[in-house]
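Morning. Coffee machine broken again, so started the prediction first thing and wrote up yesterday's gels while waiting. Chain of 739 residues, entered below exactly as on the submission form.
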Amino acid sequence: MKRSLALFAITLIATYAQAQQKTLMGFTPTSSAKQLQTEQLFDKSISPVRIGETLKDLSAYPHHLGSPGGKVVAEKILAKFKSYGFDAHLQPYKVLFPTPKTRVLELTGPTKYTAILKENVLAQDPTSGQAGQLPTYNAWSADGDVTGQLIFVNYGLPDDYETLAAMGIDVKGKIVIAKYGRSWRGIKPKVAYEHGAIGCIIYSDPKDDGYYAGDVYPKGAFKNESGVQRGSVMDMMIYPGDPLTPGVGATENAKRLDRKDAATILKIPVLPISYQDAKPLLAALEGPVAPADWRGALPFTYHVGPGAATVHLKLEFNWNMVTAYDVIGTIKGATYPDEWVLRGNHHDGWVNGADDPLSGQSALLDEAKALGDLLKTGWKPKRTIVYCAWDGEEPGLIGSTEFVEDHDKELQQKAVVYINSDDISRGFYHAGGSHALENFMGEVSESVIDPETNVTAKERKKAYEIVNAATPKAKKEIMDRKTDPIEALGSGSDFSSFLQHLGIPTLDIGYGGEGPGGEYHSIYDSFADYERFKDPGFVYGALLAKTVGHAVMRLADADLLPFDFRNLSTTISGYSKEVIELANNMREATAMQNQLVQSNAYNLAADPTKHLTPPQAKGEVPAIDFSALTTSLAALKTSADKLAVAMNTTSAANIDHKALNETIYKAEQQLLSPAGLPRRSWYKHSIYAPGFYTGYGVKTLPGIREAIEQRNWPEVQQQIAAVSASINALAAYLDRAAM
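Came back before lunch.
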């Protein structure tokens, strides 16, 4: 055993020594060696103990947008930036933010029950009973006072309403209750409203993150009976940020919409509740038994309704204007001060927010401290480094969006990359963002060591993917691949406006997978919970700081920026194959369904006692002309290959790469606002965008994909033309860069 350990240690040392000798992307052999030495000094400054102390301090009190605690947290971060040697300031924005004034939920029949709408104070969690905590609510719900029959709609997604329709159940004029999960929460009331519901209740079923999943808090990490997930239900697919100032920064004197004209505020009242409060409502439901995959873990038979179960929902809000405090800290670049590497994490929470967002924010602050320590040694970055602590992320990506809108033209000229993080826990490395940075992030993830396994973060992540791949073929493909992909980004954190609105290259980096629980957006997202269940010892906070710190420093000091558009070309081609396959599968499925309808097969196969309505015949799926898309992708591949050759040749030359670098980091802006797409839209960026009904999830090439799903065939062709035009624009741009 000792001999095996010794051999392992020798192998690890040899591997590390080999890594020290390698030439990094964007660096010469000489500058690579210097960069790696600098990173070693940086890593020595990162302290898990200090990260834990910062996390405990910042999570000691509620600090939501507009609260006294929120301003205190911003001022503490500002003071830290200044003490580290950053030129730092507060950037205020005046924004709308609703907080609850009246919350009433009552079961009025067949029995009476008044919802508690309050989480339990726990002796084991010292901050769970503090003053100043936001009540349990969904921001951007409409004010409303409604009474109606209750209907259970599963997760409240479009397919769930199709199932209800087959049962002969219509939610028009009724109040729906949906489970949290499977989508961003704002999709649930949006779809309910589209189907005619007058109110929406969202609850956390214990099957998803309560006692069915594991021991509940405080014994274990999972949601206890009183826990509630607060959260925004803003219609961010229209636009994120302050609802009253779309497209412009919410400065003091900005022109504002009337609240009734703000498109992102919902039209029906919405309220989140615990499974303690959901239990009597669901138990009172009659009607058909819920389908097997709809049923949760509460101790009764799940019915869909409607019936005698009637509820009264009354909500009123304080629609106040408050100040969001972004904190901006800058280290000016010594060589290229007008090229910016931006790094951000939000600082506002729904309550104490230890995990979300302060786990990421505390790591960011330790990165900043380590960079400050390097400054004292005489190190200066070539490019300007900008560290950002955003306010108002939770209600709708407000602080980051207002900053982007306020500085849009300057950012499109100067921003090389924006690097984001949010909440983290122990587990596996993950990254998403601009696919031209895939090879770069592969190198970065090889430069840090996972604290639980003592292998690189990249190696551990790959092992996890291989083990969990569904088939032997998929396992082999992962084992054989040369480049590890990064995920496409949808929405859900502060990267959104940088990427989807400005076309700025973006990365979102984190760790997780081994810290599950039910604390999300509840009063139990506390330091007491985090240090027990999320990241004991705060070693993954330190790992995040090292990972992102390496990425920041390499992008700030690279001679030639480490972009490889061949990866982007390959990835978009994969997206293209997906939408073509979607159309072909839909065509085949539609033909088969119509055949079964005509043959009366659905009626013959159905249980006659359940009175299910068979599906209707659908219009045939026409042949779709994807040739413009495939032609544009072929052009992009040629251009990306040509640029890669030119960059490899140029990298060896002892010249200033400023002009080429500027061309490279502005390349993805060519994908913005393709012909035929609205200027102000989440679809503005045709490749990276969230799906309309998926929220956090990603539907790549979303305009094409969703037009197919909606069977809007003229729109499909328009979207193909628009996306093809943007890809052709990028290809032509890369051609010029390669000259």
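DSSP finds 24 helices and 14 strands in the chain. Going to sketch it on the whiteboard this afternoon.
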